[in-house]
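no rush on this but wanted to send it before i forget. theres a chain ive been looking at and ive put its sequence and its fold in token form underneath. please have a look and point out which stretches look like helix strand or loop to you. thanks a lot i owe you, the record is right below:
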Amino acid sequence: MNKLLEGKKGLVIGIANDHSIAWGITDNLCKEGAQVFLTYQNDSLKKRVEPLSQKIDCLGVFPCDVESTESIEALKNSINTKIDFIVHAVAYSDKNELSGKYLNTSKENFLKTLHISSFSLTEITKIFMPLLNDNASIMALSYYGAKKYMQSYNVMGVAKAALETSIKYLAVDMGDRGIRVNGISAGPMRTLAGAVINKSRQIYSYTINNSPIKKALTLDDIGKSAVYLVSDLSKGVTGEILYVDNGYNKIGMSLEEV
């Protein structure tokens, strides 16, 4: 039986560990036949990413600091082969500024957060255009805080809103080559990134109890949705944000109640 992504090669940027959403996506893409290039930001993350690369059909592991244009260009030169998809799973903000009031966000952290969490998608797309096959798929990760106030999310919510809008504009820019640009907005999960959000455990439990399906969201749930966005099954879908949250965002409640 043919696999959905047999013969497709791609790049995944942003795996932190085996509990990260990026890993859940990567694992499922490879189970469907994809081959991937992986990146790491520093030596500490390299020690986590390299063992994971041995569990999948990995074509190479390379350094990449998305805050540096030169680093992104070096990554492109290292890969130097045509690819069919890019998964952008990178976000950053000073955790000390995620608590308290958004009003107190510093200019330095605002700019750094927007650069890494939002602008990097645009720059990566531009730099990798020569390597992208026609009808390729680009996918980024967003979060509910892009649409509504989320406690302890602050400037990250602003960055994710910018990311979601960038997805729409990039979808138009890349559409003439049939390249689709979409996002996944995952519900609260027990990840390294999610742990920095104040009361994250309470939010996690609240969304389970108040979603239509009433079960915990898994990395596999998100990974299978990513397979859909990367595969030809979604060739008529672009500029969209796919909510993978057990339907929580559809029931008219708000996390401010937590």
